[in-house]
Design a protein that fits this description.
single chain, about 30% helix, alpha/beta
Length: about 220
C-alpha cells in the first residue's frame, strides 16, 4: 500500500484540511498503529486507506493498483475483497443473530447458504463464541459483540484488517482479549492497520505512525 501526497479537505464555504500531504508506505503482514489525539486526522487516514473515503488530492495504490480515482461500485468490490473492518461502535445489526451478522458480507458476495453458514460457525468458534451463534447483540456483552464484529470482518478472508479504536468501548479485560485475538490474526499473516489513542497498545505494533494536525509527526519501525 502506497499513499502519495494524500490531502483531505472537508467543507465547501469554510474548508478544513484534515490531512495535509501525507506520504506513507505499508507493507504486507505489518501491524501498523496510527496514534494521535482526537482531531489529528488518524481515522480519516484509515478510512482513505480502507477505501471508505476518497482523498481530495493525492494518490493511493493498493497492490500497485491506483484506487483514488475508482468509481464507487469498483471501490465497494475492491473493499470487500481486500479489507475487513472493525469499529469502536461494533455496527452489528440488532435484529440479526451473531451468526447472521457474520454471514452478511458473504451474502453480498452471493456465497451459497451452506458455505457461508459453515464459515460463519468456524469464525465464531475461532473468536471464542461457540454456543452464542443464535444470540442477538443485545444478549451479548460488549466484548462478545466486538468479537462478533471481528468474525464478520474475517468472513471474506481479507488481506488487510482495519480497526478503528476496537477496544475503545470495552472494559480492560475485554480489551486485552480483543487485542490478543487481533495479534493472533496478525501472526497468521494478516496485515493490520489500527487507529488508537491508547499508547499502551503500541507493544503490539511493528510500525507506529504518530499524527498531529493532519501530518505524520513521527514514524517508528519496531521489531516484532
Amino acid at each position: 500500500m502506497d499513499a502519495k501526497k494524500i490531502c483531505r479537505i472537508f467543507g465547501t464555504d469554510v474548508k478544513t484540511k484534515v490531512l495535509n500531504d501525507v506520504n506513507l508506505k505499508i507493507y504486507e503482514k505489518e501491524f501498523v498503529m496510527i496514534l494521535g489525539p482526537s482531531g489529528c486526522g488518524k481515522t480519516t487516514l484509515m478510512n482513505i486507506l480502507g477505501l471508505l473515503d476518497t482523498p481530495s488530492s493525492g494518490k493511493l495504490y493498493i497492490n500497485n493498483k491506483l484506487t483514488s480515482n475508482m468509481a464507487e461500485s469498483e471501490r465497494a468490490v475492491f473493499r470487500r475483497k481486500i479489507g475487513g473492518f472493525i469499529f469502536q461502535q461494533f455496527h452489528l445489526i440488532n435484529t440479526l443473530t451473531a451468526l447472521q451478522n457474520v454471514e452478511l458480507p458473504m451474502v453480498l458476495d452471493n456465497l451459497e447458504t451452506e458455505t457461508r453458514t459453515q464459515r460463519a460457525m468456524r469464525l465464531l468458534n475461532l473468536v471464542g463464541l461457540k454456543g452464542k451463534e443464535h444470540n442477538r447483540p443485545s444478549q451479548l456483552s460488549g466484548g462478545q459483540q466486538q468479537r462478533v464484529a471481528i468474525a464478520r470482518a474475517l468472513s471474506n478472508k481479507p488481506k488487510i484488517l482495519f480497526a478503528d479504536e476496537p477496544t475503545g468501548n470495552l472494559d480492560s479485560v475485554s480489551g486485552k482479549q480483543v487485542m490478543k485475538l487481533i495479534k493472533e490474526l496478525h501472526d497468521q499473516g494478516i496485515t493490520v492497520i489500527m487507529v488508537t489513542h491508547d499508547s499502551t497498545l503500541l507493544k503490539y505494533a511493528t510500525k507506529v505512525i504518530k499524527m498531529k494536525d493532519g501530518l505524520i509527526e513521527e514514524l517508528l519501525q519496531r521489531d516484532e
